[in-house]
Amino acid sequence: MTGSLDATTVAPALESVRALLQADGADIELVELDGDVAHLRLLLVEANCAECVLPTPLLADVALQQMRPQAPGLAAIVIDDPRTG
């Protein structure tokens, strides 16, 4: 791994993903970092349309693409999505 990942690196990188989700009233938060994998939790409490939020696999891909420029050591995203039980 080229750089060390920690919450101070990943949290700002997550802001662009949060902005996308907040448009539909949803949000996402960092739960933990496991090496180069970020574990995120999708929050749908205020969501106007939970079905409008991207499906989990696509959301994980978009999040990774959005976050990598600021957190280049990030290898993967795992999302805890309440819609998938």
Q: Determine Rg (CA atoms, Å).
A: 12 Å
The span between the termini is 33 Å
Which class do the helix and strand fractions yield? Answer: alpha+beta
List the secondary-structure elements in sequence, H or E: HEEHE
- What's the mean pLDDT score? 89
Shape: globular
Residue runs with pLDDT of under 50 for 5 or more positions: none
Share of helical residues: 25-40%
Which sheet architecture does the biggest sheet show?
Answer: 3 strands, mixed
Amount of beta strand: 15-25%
E-strand count = 3
Number of helices: 2
Order of strands, widest sheet: 1-2-3
Q: What secondary-structure arrangement, pairings included, does this model have?
A:
Blueprint: H1 7-22, E1 27-34, E2 37-43, H2 56-67, E3 76-80
Parallel strand pairs: 2-3
Antiparallel strand pairs: 1-2
What does this molecule look like?
The chain is an alpha+beta fold and 85 residues long. Helix content is 33%, strand content 24%. The chain contains two helices and three strands; from the N terminus they run αββαβ. It has helices at residues 7-22, 56-67, and strands at residues 27-34, 37-43, 76-80. The protein has a three-stranded mixed sheet, with helices on one face. α1 (7-22) crosses α2 (56-67). The longest helix is centred in the first third of the chain and has 16 residues, at 7-22. The radius of gyration is 12 Å and the shape is globular. The termini are far apart. The mean pLDDT is 89.
